[in-house]
Amino acid sequence: MKVDLGDLNAFVAVAGAKGFRDGARLSGGSASSLSEAVRRLETQLGVRLLHRTTRSVRPTEAGERLLERLRPALTEVEAALDVVNGFRDRPAGTLKLNVPISAARLVLPSIVPRFLAAYPEISLEVIAEDSFVDVLAAGCDAGIRYDERLEQDMVAVPIGPRVQRFAAAAAPSYLDRRGRPEHPRDLLGHACLRGRFASGSMPPWEFERDGETLRLDVTGQLIVRIGSAAELSIDAAIAGAGVIYLFEDWLRPHLDSGALEPILEPWWPRFSGPFLYYSGRRLLPAPLRAFVDFIQRGA
Q1: What are the DSSP E strand ranges found in 112-162?
Q2: Dist. CA 58–CA 23, nearest whole Å
Q3: Does the domain formed by 90-157+273-296 have CATH 3.40.190.10?
Q4: Is 169 helix (H, G, I), strand (E, B) or coil?
Q5: What's the CA gap between 83 and 17, in Å, rounded?
Q6: Which of 18, 26, 62, 230 could connect to 139 by a Cys-Cys bridge, CB 3.0–4.6 Å?
Q7: How do 154-158 and 261-263 pair as beta strands?
Q8: How far is Cα 285 from Cα 135, in angstroms, rounded to an integer?
Q9: Do 163-271 and 90-157+273-296 have the same topology in CATH?
Q10: Where are the domains of the chain?
Q11: Verdict on whether the full-model pTM lies above 0.85
Q12: How confident is the model at residue 135, as a pLDDT?
């Protein structure tokens, strides 16, 4: 039976993304073309591969079995085709990264322009989101995450600053009105601008000093989606709506300008910087190998 490789790729993309629209977004196609490809594949195979409802798409038992065999096979096909890149003067192709919004904001801007200039035949696609996804199932070559969220079977390469801090700050006008906290527990009496993950969880604000760690469930009127709505939270803090707690590097321009005043700085927690991570179970595509080498050279 001769089956179109593009139809198989379409099926894997839709099943991995659990939807035609998300599959199209991740694969760079259209939802209608993916739908037609999967329908064509199902007709040719004579079996339904996906359960479709108005809210979700999930593989049937036959679809699951096919996926188990297809994913490694398609990975090998990609690796085989990529071998010819080794015979080029410069690597070419597309590199697709899945990164948290904080990394897109704070890590990649100092790297991407120089990488693209060094490798003009590589196209880079960056998907910025704060939900935790299987990068391979999502059709990405690699991702950026922090160490506590790395999968154990992945290769991790340091990228960006190796030490970062979370910072607390507020507008001087707010602090003049409400008082300046002298201890993290004082924040329990302040208006705090909180963040919520896509999962629904709201992380506590963490502070540490001289071996003492405090985790506070602060309160306030404004809650924003972590990452995607951080700028709203910053604007609200500058306008005097309350205390913000965010990456120091993200707040640094406003701290330097005086729009925000740092508070409790001796208590700001430090943590290790992010990592570029990718599967160690396959040959690296040439664009990813070029990116890894570029990062490791510290270029």
Answers
A1: 122-128, 142-145, 154-158
A2: 12
A3: yes
A4: strand
A5: 28
A6: 26
A7: unpaired
A8: 14
A9: yes
A10: 5-83, 90-157+273-296, 163-271
A11: no
A12: 76
User: 51 in helix, strand or coil?
Assistant: strand
| CA quadruple 273, 276, 280, 284: dihedral, nearest 10 | -160
Residue matched to tokens 């809650």: 223
Q: Which long-range contacts (CB under 8 A, 24 or more apart) does 184-189 make?
A: 184/214, 184/216, 184/264, 184/267, 185/214, 185/216, 187/216, 187/218, 187/243, 187/264, 188/216, 188/218, 188/219
Residue 89 — pLDDT band, cuts 50, 70, 90?
low
Backbone angles phi, psi at 287, to 5 degrees: -60, -40
Backbone angles phi, psi at 267, to 5 degrees: -100, 0
Task: Locate 228 and state its tokens.
Answer: 């995607």
Distances (CA, A) of 233 to 106, 193, 207: 17, 6, 20
Lookup: tokens for 263 = 């508070």
Fold of 163-271: D-Maltodextrin-Binding Protein; domain 2 (3.40.190)
Pairing of strands 93-99, 142-145: parallel
| 270-272 and 163-170 strand pairing | antiparallel
Q: Residues of the chain with pLDDT > 70: what percent?
A: 89
The whole-angstrom separation of Cα 297 and Cα 142 is 18
pLDDT digits (tens, 9 = 90+) for 235-271: 999 999 999 999 999 999 999 999 999 999 999 999 9
Provide the H-helix boundaries in the chain: 5-17, 20-27, 31-45, 61-82, 101-106, 112-118, 172-178, 230-238, 248-257, 286-296
